[in-house]
Specification:
One of its GO terms (biological process) is translation. The protein is mainly β and 307 residues long. The protein is built from five helices and 17 strands.
Amino acid sequence: MYDYKPEGWLIDTYENRAALKSQAALHEACQSSRILEARAILCDSAHNLTVDLGCMRGVIPREEGAWGLADGTTRDIAVISRVNKPVCFVVTGFEKDASGDAYALLSRRAVQQQCMEEYLPTLTPGTILDARVTHLEPFGCFVDIGCGISSLIPIDAISISRISHPKDRFRVSQDIKAVVRSVDENGRITLSHKELLGTWEENAALFQNGQTVAGIIRSVEDYGVFVELTPNLAGLAEPRDDVAAGQHASVYIKSLIPEKMKVKLIIVDAFDAQYSPEKPRYFIEEGTLSRWQYSPDSAAKLVETVF
């Protein structure tokens, strides 16, 4: 089976560049229905995409721009938003324009249909996969899981530490890992992310009592201030009225208490800063999960995900 990846993963490979090097190579790719990638450079008023193939111009007719455009289940924004970005396609033929210049006819829809028929049915709850962030909404993060096919990571599944918006954790075009959370009766896939970021014990092992470390203030409550040490580990500091959610902080670790899944902190300093979200540290990167337990065995409360 072809190794289906998010759009943009293929474009800079040697094999892809070689296939775009000449018209002869493109003809060969057409004969073998080989999946290629290149950058879309224009979308006309009829929503046909022009693609820069290097050796010649390529055109993706509107209805070949994405699966579902022909029957209206996919909106035209799926095509318009690809301008200046990589697109996947197969070469379906060659034509000449009114000036006699040759161009290649391309289909992105065919690649997506192939991905939906050959790859997506192999994804079951617990499957870990590669994804690329495409856009961020208050309720979650949309990612490309293969050939431009989109899936959602709900905001509560991004990390154990709660965030106010997915932009606190991700940026558009970032490559991440995800795990299949569920597949509904229509084949729609929902993803999760927090299970790959480590258990309480794995994250707590990165710290020691008495250390002063970096953190991010995630919420300020009457009874204390929650400070994130890692995406899957947060601690509670004593109440303060001079700090705000979103600020960065330096915090002193008083104690780590596994049986209560608690980290007691003292805020040394809090300040405003515009640091970019850090690249996720994954404790699991491949395979299939059947069950994931966040809580230590000694903890009174069980926190787990069963796939």
